[in-house]
Specification:
CATH class of the largest domain: Alpha Beta
Number of domains: 2
CATH architecture of the largest domain: 2-Layer Sandwich
Structural class: alpha+beta
CATH topology of the largest domain: PmbA/TldD fold
Strand content: 35-45%
Helix content: 10-25%
Radius of gyration: 24 Å
Largest sheet: 10 strands, mixed
């Protein structure tokens, strides 16, 4: 197989020959070694190869795109023609563009080489630990993978970036069982760049097994109240991301419906809240190094001490709205820790709910939300009590971000995010 840089050059040549005024492409070659476990037994071991090319062309102010998974010249030429045909059928859009040449860079991220023997040993150790330490846990499925990818990004402005990345993933689906009693399914995924420590200790896996066993004694919530919910890292990122998308997302800003469209540099949340995007942080496994637009990625803050500092926009969305492009298109979120331990926060709660998972629909335009608090526990008189069954929570995301009571000193790292526990007030629990 040709080097992917040569393939990327060929793609641009074909796009220009087909009529592109400007063009950009991403060429990737990947290899993954998978080890799957079903019902406690190994069910699959395989190696998967993956090739991909995505191309974008601009012609007469119109954009076309195409994707293929073949590297042969005939397939590339056919896809290039399809890309130009798509551009011909599009409408003129002054915001379409390709990355400008600023700096070219090459990166090597993550594991330097795979060690499948040690990985197998770590998986076996993980299974044995679950059986010993959490006898009521049934591992319905375990998916583990070592993956390495070589990616080249190139365009007709002279941009050329190269990223070689590799790392491991462990994903579990599990439930607790005791006699006739059983809990609902729960799942967790973590990413990591090396095998230096037992997999059971990564992220929140131990905590979730412990809580899942306690869910066997779940009880219905007695009554209804409006008060505090302590949101665990397992769903905090999704909640905050939903708020950012609803109030400052690209689509909403382009449409003019974003509630924070005129609030850049203004306070939008409690001053205790700082939300950062950190693909380059050492706690992130295989974080983004090249943005979707074709620029070198950087860490940045979206909210700093409650003040909105960046919209997190792609170059297209930035040009469309008259704002600036974000330094990264990554989803690697970090929320700055607070000044209280988790134990101190719990002890200060008279009545509330520990929420570990949330199942709900799309929030309303104004941020109103409602859904079921899954894998959640009643907190009373400063203690985490029993699990609750099918309990609803509802509130408003914008108010919620301004009603932060406390943020834990402790944070959880799962290789894709770094998140604390956050205590919010004025949420309806029923």
């Amino acid at each position: 197989m040709k080097d992917i840089k040569e393939i990327a050059s060929r793609v641009l040549e074909e796009l220009k020959k087909a009529g592109a005024d400007a063009a950009q492409c991403t060429v990737a070659h990947g290899k993954a070694k998978e080890l799957n476990i079903d019902g406690g037994e190994i069910s699959l071991m395989r190696t998967v190869l993956d090739n991909s090319i995505s191309m974008k062309a601009i012609k007469d102010g119109k954009k076309g795109s195409a994707s293929i998974n073949q590297f042969d010249e005939a397939s590339i030429a056919a896809a290039a023609r399809e890309c130009i045909e798509a551009a011909d059928a599009a409408v003129v859009d002054d915001a379409v563009c390709i990355a400008e040449l600023t700096q070219n860079a090459e990166f090597d991220v993550g594991a330097k080489e795979d060690d499948m023997d040690l990985f197998f040993d770590r998986i076996t150790e993980f299974l044995d630990t679950v059986k010993t330490d959490y006898p009521k846990i049934m591992l319905e499925q375990v998916f583990s993978e070592y993956a390495e990818t070589d990616t080249a990004v190139m365009n007709t402005n002279g941009v050329y970036h190269r990223l070689r990345e590799a790392g491991y993933t462990l994903s579990t689906m599990f439930s607790a069982h005791e006699g006739e009693k059983a809990t609902s399914f729960n799942g967790y995924e973590a990413q990591f760049g090396d095998l230096s420590r037992p997999l059971i200790g990564i992220g929140m896996q131990r905590t979730l097994f412990e809580l899942s066993q306690k869910e066997l004694d779940a009880q219905p919530l007695d009554g209804k109240f409006t008060g505090k919910i302590l949101v665990a890292p397992t769903c905090l990122g999704e909640m905050v991301d939903a708020a950012l998308d609803k109030f400052a997302g690209a689509t909403e800003l382009i449409n003019g419906t974003a509630a924070w469209k005129d609030k850049l540099g203004q306070k939008v949340a409690d001053e205790k809240l700082t939300v950062s995007i950190i693909p380059l942080d050492e706690r992130i496994s295989g974080g983004e190094r090249i943005t979707d637009d074709g620029y070198v990625s950087e860490n940045f803050d979206m909210i700093r001490n409650g003040v909105l500092t960046d919209f997190g926009l792609s170059e297209y969305a930035a040009r469309k709205t008259g704002n600036k492009r974000a330094p990264s298109t990554s989803s690697c979120m970090a929320i700055a820790p607070g000044d209280k331990t988790l134990d101190e926060i719990v002890k200060g709660i008279d009545k509330g709910l520990l929420v570990c998972r949330f199942s709900g629909g799309e929030p309303a335009v104004n941020g109103d939300f409602s859904g079921v608090a899954k894998n959640s526990f009643l907190i009373e008189n400063g203690e985490i009590k029993h699990a609750v069954t099918e309990t609803m929570i509802s509130g408003n995301l914008e108010k919620m971000l301004n009603d932060i009571v406390a943020i834990s000193k402790e944070t959880v790292e799962d290789g894709a995010s770094v998140l604390p526990y956050v205590l919010f007030d004025r949420i309806t629990v029923s």
